[in-house]
UniProtKB/TrEMBL annotation:
It comes from Suillus luteus UH-Slu-Lm8-n1. The keyword Membrane applies. This is Uncharacterized protein. Keywords: Membrane, Transmembrane, Transmembrane helix. The lineage of its organism: Eukaryota, Fungi, Dikarya, Basidiomycota, Agaricomycotina. The chain crosses the membrane at residues 17-35, 47-71, 91-109, 116-140, 160-182, 209-230, 236-255.
Length: 297
């Protein structure tokens, strides 16, 4: 039996409420880390982190207000219908998506040694996707103002608006994951004078890649794009909850790197390196330092 739009929207609101609570805790932790450990050098990340949280908070406030009004005044059968407030919430979701993309792009730029060429294409797809989303509220108002899902006429534009940021996520996630894998395999000369590869702990690598490369972000976006393209009412769940997941994924990266447990951090050891070519090893939110046995990120 197909799930109704009202049920999907209600489930999405409950999921968003839970995830928003999780996000609040993570946001406070990230602020403490950024302010106490890196007081001056992280202003860009601090501002972006606060903007992302403010956007997610505004989104939850609009959704909760819509839920309250539906229970207090309107019949709950109309809960899933589109309203101007929900259109604003949908736009805020896209803003949160864009901010999350920009944070990932900034991280990718640092991981790849501040190479602008690496992030040009992902940046263009992120901006193009946001540009596709901007006219959708006015189009919905002119076609079917109460449609709980995007009207058929604008499904291609809506799909493009979410598929392009997905392309950004796939590219950036791949770039970061490849770079993290590469810099976690450090060529060294051990104490016996033999070439060796210094690796991070193998047990933590899968979770490290998921958290640090933004894979959680990418998977959420992929499922959402598929549901939108299918015009499935379940897209309402991720439409609400996804906004908080965007913030949580970005904040987890900030916390992990800020605590010094990023994969770019390699334990101090008495070794000599074959070369100093891997000069981008270091914390991804701060100015990178050439790696040697006396530097611990």
């Amino acid at each position: 039996m197909a799930v109704s739009t009202n049920v999907s929207a209600a489930v999405g609101m409950v999921c968003e409420a839970f995830l928003y609570g999780v996000y609040c805790v993570l946001f406070i932790a990230s602020i403490v880390i950024l302010v106490k450990r890196y007081r001056v050098s992280h202003r860009v990340i601090l501002v972006a982190n606060c903007l992302l949280f403010a956007t997610s908070t505004a989104h939850f406030a609009l959704v909760f207000n819509h839920f309250y009004i539906a229970l207090e005044n309107a019949p709950f059968s109309a809960f899933g219908d589109e309203t101007p407030e929900l259109m604003g919430a949908n736009l805020l979701s896209s803003v949160a998506d864009l901010l999350g993309d920009l944070l990932l792009l900034y991280r990718c730029w640092l991981v790849w040694g501040k190479n602008y060429y690496v992030i040009i294409l992902p940046l263009l797809t992120a901006l193009a996707g946001f540009g596709c989303i901007l006219p959708i509220p006015s189009l919905v108002l002119s076609i079917n103002p109460t449609s709980p899902v995007p009207p058929t006429e604008i499904v291609p534009l809506t799909t493009a608006g979410y598929a392009l940021p997905l392309c950004t996520n796939i590219m950036v996630t791949g770039l970061i994951a490849v770079r993290l894998w590469y810099i976690s395999r450090v060529p060294i000369i051990d104490e016996y004078g033999k070439p060796a590869i210094l690796k991070i702990a193998a047990g933590g690598r899968p979770m490290m890649l998921v958290i640090e490369s933004g894979a959680l972000y990418m998977i959420t976006q992929l499922i959402f794009v598929v549901l939108v393209a299918m015009q499935n009412s379940a897209e309402a769940v991720l439409s609400y909850a996804g906004t908080q997941i965007y913030g949580i994924a970005s904040t987890l990266i900030i916390i992990r790197v800020g605590l010094g447990i990023s994969s770019e951090t390699v334990p101090t050891t008495h070794v000599k390196f074959w070369s100093q070519s891997k000069d981008t090893i270091g914390g991804t939110w701060r100015d990178d330092h050439p790696f040697d046995s006396s530097v611990v990120a």
